[in-house]
Amino acid sequence: MKSFKRITNIVIGLMALVATGSVLGQHSTLILGETEHYAHTSESGLFTDTGTFTLLEETLISVSIVDNEADGGILGPILDVSSFEVSTGGTSIAIFDELTSHIFSLGTLGAGEYTLTFDGFSNGLAGSVYDVTVNAVPLPAAVWLFGSALLGFAAFTGRRSV
Question: Could you tell me the pTM of the whole model?
């Protein structure tokens, strides 16, 4: 009975050590439209990953985070990223901590260098494997069609004689 308690205490102690660990984070240079792969498969604990991207002009930006790890069984894949922050020059622009969607609009960002910081937890068994894609969001075709329609109305109204 005493040996069972000792073994139980040792197992609980080891689990606590594993759960409070810290995983070395990754840093990547993100290129618009390309997917960057982040993986923590053999370590367990909290991690912080970063990625930077540079904009040469004001652009509408979205970020996609896709869970790419081993299946979590009945629950399916579980996104291990708990939050991410967007910052520039050390100033935070946005923090996303309710990751119910995997695509986030950052809105229109001006020219400059931006940093994305991802925080999460890796269990060391299934690991934490996810992909990040930063995209420039193009203007929808409807905007161009609407603009050309306005020009057509203006031209038509100018030619009309009363």
Answer: 0.66
User: Token pair 């950052």 is at which residue?
Assistant: 106
pLDDT digits (tens, 9 = 90+) for 45-58: 888 999 999 998 88
Residue 135: exposure state from Cβ atoms within 10 A (0-12, 13-18, ≥19): middle
In the chain, the largest separation of any two C-alpha atoms, in whole Å, equals 104
Q: What is the pLDDT of residues 78-91, one digit of tens each?
A: 677 888 899 998 89
